[in-house]
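[INFO] parsing input record for Bifunctional NAD(P)H-hydrate repair enzyme
[DEBUG] input buffer:
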Amino acid sequence: MYIVTAKEMYDIDEYTINEIGLEGKLLMENAGRAVSEKVIKLIGETEPVCVFIGAGNNGGDGFVIARVLLDKGYFVQVVQVVPDEKITGDALFHKRVFIQCGGEVSYLTDRAAICKIVERVRFVIDAIIGIGVKGVLREPIQEIVHIINQSKACVISVDIPSGLPADEGVTEFTSVQADYTFVIAAAKESAFLVDTADYYGQWEIVPIGIPNLVLRKNSTKSQWIESNFRKTIPSRTVHAHKGSHGRGLIIGGCSEMPGSIAMSTKAALKTGAGLITAGTTEKVISMIAATCPEAMYMNLPEKDGYITSGPALTISNYHAIAIGIGLGRRKDTGDVVAELLNHAPCPLLIDADGIYHLKSHLSLLKQRSMPTIITPHPGEMAMLLGISISDLLSAPFHHTRKLAEAYGVFIILKGKHTIITSPKGRQAVEASGNPGLAKGGTGDVLTGIVLAMMMQEQELFDALCNACFIHGKSADIQVEEKHAYYDLMATDVIDGISNVYRTFPCKRE
Ligand SMILES: NC(=O)C1=CN([C@@H]2O[C@H](COP(=O)(O)OP(=O)(O)OC[C@H]3O[C@@H](n4cnc5c(N)ncnc54)[C@H](OP(=O)(O)O)[C@@H]3O)[C@@H](O)[C@H]2O)[C@@H](O)CC1
Ligand SMILES: [K+]
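[DEBUG] output buffer:
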């Protein structure tokens, strides 16, 4: 499931046409047929359909869809929203084929005429503009899009809702609001952004015969889905012992937030960590030890209830360390973060208040010889970058990649569509999870899951993606089986980790 920009998609088309030898007309036929199949499943047998067609290749797809539907016996009305001379190339080829098959095309831009047509149909197919949109829609197309959006018809967009930019970073646009979008060959960036994702309605990718190797070669982003999890989650051998699955240290907690480190610790153990030590203050240890008897504890020096740096911090024995959860924002707790950045001899995960402290120590990231991973939510990420949250969310792929490459850090940018980025710029989107996760404590649970995954034998990037998958799927299964968005608690997400492993079992050796 690749994710592309418009330019990457054009490169993919061009390579497929010129190097692989599949002609544009053929790709258009495949695209139109693939979308038609989905449309037919959706609309049932006899519904009249109106197809709106624009000047480019997206309109060409529309002519193929209209022909397939006509051939299947549907009543199809085709409204071309640009004059005849604008239809050229492959789109003109398919327009002619449609007409040869008995189809009729009306060139219409008049408001009253279009309103009348739209009122009479239950399904509108939007093949006006695809990834070739530039700027805000011009008239009369903008007005036609408003009519479509105001109608009661179910709107099915081809490739992308017309007017919506494919790429991140575009904030001004007018777009069709689709109920369904059948996306051609690869997902476009805008399907994952806060301000644009909803325009797609429900969406699904339809393959059109572009070889996988071409998609892989031309894209740096993909979606992390069940098949990725199944392929990469490491197996557990029957001869394994607790030491085979990693020793981890979690540092955090303060008198006011004792629960956070308890949840991270429990989540790490539940995810499969061999041994977990919770490094925290004596008072927090006394508060949480009974809730997680499987863990070990490290008593750290404290001042006014907060961890401070001191000789008690032994960090040489661990395969991975996490810091930040419930740590507090005092300057001397920040010194502990700096100490770890300087000396942790293993992968280091920084979360929550640890990210707050990281802002003053960003330069230390570059000196680390072992990987560093941060798990910010958008507010923390914007703080690190010194930009507004809305600027970050309008181009999250760009901004996270910039930070990851500049400081050599792995980033998990949390959200509905969590973006995982490697220091080399590889990116994945993990989209499981539900609104029940919008609650205190769920981030602490993710930290524990990520730490546990970091200690299992798998590529670090895969480990981070798998951790997000486990966290989101746990919440999803819990809501499916016994909870609602309202009552799902962070601790339920920990309990639900078992369901994820049972639903998507690891291979056994
Ligand atoms: N072989 C392939 O490549 C394949 C491509 N495929 C399909 O092609 C699609 C891409 O096709 P594309 O490149 O022709 O662009 P497309 O999205 O149809 O739009 C161009 C038109 O939009 C117009 N327009 C732009 N901005 C505007 C504005 N603000 N306001 C108003 N009008 C505006 C622009 O007009 P112009 O500015 O030129 O006057 C031009 O006429 C892609 O999404 C997929 O569906 C599949 O069939 C598989 C094979
Ligand atoms: K479209």
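[INFO] DSSP finds 19 helices and 21 strands in the chain.
[INFO] shutting down worker
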